[in-house]
Design goal:
Elements (H helix, E strand, L loop, with lengths): L3 E9 L2 E6 L2 E9 L2 H10 L4 E6 H6 L5 H11 L2 E5 L5 H9 L4 E4 L1 H5 L1 H11 L4 E9 L5 E2 L1 E2 L4 E2 L4 H10 L4 E6 L11 H10 L4 E5 L5 H9 L4 E4 L1 H4 L5 H6 L1
GO molecular function: 1-(5-phosphoribosyl)-5-[(5-phosphoribosylamino)methylideneamino]imidazole-4-carboxamide isomerase activity
Subcellular location: Cytoplasm
InterPro entries: Aldolase_TIM, His_biosynth, HisA/PriA, HisA_bact_arch, Isoase_HisA-like, RibuloseP-bd_barrel
Length: about 240
């Protein structure tokens, strides 16, 4: 199975940022020109980009259409993007603007039947469901939503089972406790998801520190990994990682 690297660009107020454990009050800024980051990733040999509208993730209403259009036009990257996707019209607009896949987060937790309709309408390869999970004191994986400001009633496994039954192919799963922490990906979680749902192409997200973590994610069964802070801070050389 192929393994895809997704350099991540998280945008808030027009800047490239990273949040620690999903906390909007714990932001690190890396630059004011998201397009320049995308160009560098393309020049390093990337074929995909993971683009997140953090403002919209909390408030709704995707705001990065001009940036998405510019990235597609100037880099040729295939862009997986989301944040604030709430309606069929939102999905259609992003795909029309050049997105290769649309990422659906909170709505995939609240309204799985709606997402099932989108999978049928737009195609299973055009939708990525992003489930951000946090383990509670009892060991149950819970799902923070609305920019990680609330917690859903259903568990990770309950929601994921419904999407798998609907034909979902692409899953991005983030262990919130590891996001932006450079603590290593949660390999146990990914191994469990891949074993229980072999039809899914799981993207590891959160905690990736180095090349060893990428190899371990692949060994755990993941089909790809999202590269955030480690890439932004030079802990991973994208060209080298792609070559491997």
């Amino acid at each position: 199975m192929s393994f895809t690297l997704y350099p991540a660009i998280d945008v808030r107020d027009g800047r490239v940022v990273r949040l620690r454990q999903g906390d909007y009050g714990a932001e690190t800024r890396y630059g004011d020109d998201p397009l320049a980051f995308a160009v560098r990733h393309a020049q390093a040999g990337a074929s995909w980009l993971h683009l997140v509208d953090l403002d919209a993730a909390r408030a709704g209403g995707y705001t990065l259409l001009p940036l998405l259009d510019a990235i597609v036009a100037h880099t040729g990257l295939q862009v997986q993007t989301g944040g604030g996707v709430r309606s069929r019209e939102d999905v259609a607009a992003l795909l029309a603007a050049g997105a290769a896949r649309v990422v659906v987060g909170s709505l995939a937790v609240r309204e799985p039947d709606t997402v099932a309709q989108w999978l049928a309408r737009f195609g299973r390869d055009r939708i990525t469901v992003a489930l951000d999970a946090r383990q509670d004191a009892a060991g149950t994986w819970r799902l923070p939503v609305h920019g990680w400001t609330r917690v859903a009633d259903e568990t990770l496994e309950e929601v994921l089972a419904r999407h798998a039954d609907a034909g979902l192919v692409h899953l991005l799963c983030t262990d919130v406790a590891r996001d932006g922490m450079l603590a290593g990906p949660n390999l146990e979680l990914y191994r469990r998801l891949c074993e229980r749902h072999p039809g899914l192409r799981v993207q590891a997200s959160g905690g990736v520190r180095d090349m060893a973590d990428l190899h371990a994610s692949r060994t755990a069964g993941c089909s790809g990994a999202v590269l955030g802070r480690a890439l932004l801070e030079g802990r991973i050389d994208l060209r080298e990682a792609l070559a491997c």
